[in-house]
User: Fold this.
Amino acid sequence: QVRLVESGGGLAQAGGSLRLSCAATGFTFSDYTMGWFRQAPGKERQFVGVIDYTGGDTWYADSVKGRFTISRDNAKSTVDLQMNRLSPEDSADYYCAAAALAKIRPRGDASGTYDYWGQGTRVTVSS
Assistant:
């Protein structure tokens, strides 16, 4: 059974940092590209970033570039999202997702590309 479980969400102050983690089971993690998406209340799900199956290529949304970093540990089947210089606009439910993609471009930013999704973890940034 495929499972993606996010953790690490919570409350942060503007300018602060949080680190989200996603633990994967039930599939060959090292074969899958991993993405992070977020959804704020009343808004559509938004691409945050993606890392290829090797960990050697990443792609970020312009809104988080330079502040957020994705990393993965294929031995542990985990993918992390380090979020720095948080702002209230980053408040959302954050989801990790897995896609059977060989290359993250051009489709790595599209939610429809992804095969498996976690349940999400909530991030709230106060001003």
The chain is about 0% helix and 50% strand. The radius of gyration is 13 Å. The mean pLDDT is 97. The longest strand covers residues 18-25.
